[in-house]
Amino acid sequence: MKAINAEIIGVGTELLLGQISNTNAQWLSEQLATKGIGVYYHHVVGDNHKRLLDVFKLAARRSDLVFVTGGLGPTDDDLTRETLAEFVGKPLCQNEQALADLEYFFKRTDRDMTENNLKQTMVIEGAQIIRNHAGTAPGMIVPFQDCHFIIMPGVPNEMKTMMKEQILPSLSEMLKLHDVIVSRMVKFIGIGESQLEMRVKPLIDQQSNPTIAPLATEGEVALRVTAKAHTKLEADELINQTLAQINDYVGEYIYGYDEESISDVIVKWLSEHHKTLAAAESLTGGRFADAFVSVLGAGHVFNGSLVSYTADAKAGALGVQQATIDREGMVSKQCAYEMAKRAKELFNASYGISFTGVAGPDPLEGKEVGTVYICLYTDSDNYIIEQFSFPKSREIVRNRSVKKGLQLIYDKLIRQ
After folding, report:
1. 292 with 363: CB under 8 angstroms?
2. Contact 132, 158 (CB under 8 A)
C-alpha cells in the first residue's frame, strides 16, 4: 500500500505574532503517527486570502492529507472555509445540522447569538461534515483530486475532540490505515550534541527503519528512535533492537527514556536509598527547588530550599560567615561551600547543594556575567565545588545552572 503523506497548516495571524503557541501541530503529528501517517510539513499562515490560497495550492500538490486548524470563526478575518471553497471550486451552503447545533450551543450556554455567527453554519458543498461537540464551528473533510483537506477549529479542545471522536476513525475506515509509527526518546546527560552524534554516527549512517534523530534542548540532548510497522508490537521490537545498539555505543551517558526527566531519576534514587536533599539558591532564585517539587514523590526526599539573594540574606538567614563574604565575595567557591553546608544543616538533609553566581546584566565582584559556582556537600570530607562560565544571557545562565546542578547530583551520587 502506498505511504500516506500529510501536512498541517495552522491559520491565524496571532500564531505568526507569537501571541499564542501552535500546540495543535505537535499534537496532530503525534496522533497521526499512531495511524502510520507521516507528517512532512508544518505551516503557519496569517489571516490573508492570497497567502492561504497559495498554501492550499502547494499542499494539494504534494500531500495526501492536509490538516487545517483555525480560521473558522464568525468574524471577517476568519477566511479558511471561504478560501478553501474557492480553491476546490465548490459553493458554500448552509448546513441544517450545523445550524441546529449552533442554536443549541447558544441556548445551552444562555448567550445571545449574533447574526455573524451564522457564518459558521456555512459548509463546502460535497464535504463530509464533522460536528463540533465542544464548540460552534463544524469541521469538514473536503476531497480535492488526489488529496483530502481536513479543516477544524483552532481551539485546541474543539480540534482534539473532533480528531479523536470522528476524524481519526473516519480516516482509518476510508484509507484502510493499518501501519503504526512509534517513537521513543533516549535521554542523555554529560555529553554534548555534536559528540553524541559522532559517537552514534555508524548507526545513523546505516539507518532505514527505525530512524535515529539527534535532538537538543536546554542543557541536555536526546535521540529520537522512530519505527514503522504493521503493529505496535512489531514497531516496539524494532525500536528495542536499536536501543540495545545505542546502549552499546553511548550507554554510559543514558539517564532515561521518553517523558522521564533527570529530576525524576534523582528523586527515585533518593527515595530508594532513603536519602534527602536540600538547597541554598542565589542566582537560581528557587528554580532548582521547582525542578524537584514538580516531581511526584519529591516531598519525601526534598527537604527544602532557602533563597538567599543578597549578602545580608546569605549571612543572616543562611549563616554564611561575614568574613567569607568580605574576603572571598558572594560569588566564590568558599561561599558556595558554606551555602551548601548550611543548607544540609538547616534542613537536616543527607546532602546540600548550592548555587551562587552572576546572572547579569552586569558583572559582580569582578566576576563576569555567566560565572557560576555549584557545590554538592555531604560532609566536610566529601564535597565537590564546580565553576562554570555560561553564555551571557540572564535566562540561559539561570536555566543552565539548574541543569548543571542536576547533572552534578546525578554524576556524583548515581552514576559513580
Report:
1. no
2. yes
| Residues spanned by the domain of 187 | 180-257
Helices (H), 273-361: 287-293, 311-313, 322-327, 333-346
Task: Give CA 288 to chain center in angstroms.
Answer: 19
* DSSP-assigned beta bridge partners for residue 376: 353, 384
Tell whether 110 and 197 lie within a shared domain.
no
pLDDT of residue 59: 97
- Residue 246's pLDDT is 97
DSSP letter, residue 372:
E
Total structural domains within the chain:
3
pTM: 0.72
Q: Where are the beta strands (DSSP E) in 70-179?
A: 92-94, 122-124, 128-130, 139-144, 147-152
Question: In CATH, what number is assigned to the domain containing residue 202?
Answer: 3.30.70.2860
pLDDT in tens, 113-157: 888 999 999 999 999 999 999 889 999 999 999 999 999 999 999
Residues 329 and 348 reside in one and the same domain: yes
Residue 287, Cβ neighbours under 10 Å: how many? 17
Give the whole-angstrom CA distance, residue 171 versus residue 168.
5
Contact of 366 with 375, CB cutoff 8 Å: no
Q: Give me the CATH number covering residue 323.
A: 3.90.950.20
SS3 228: strand
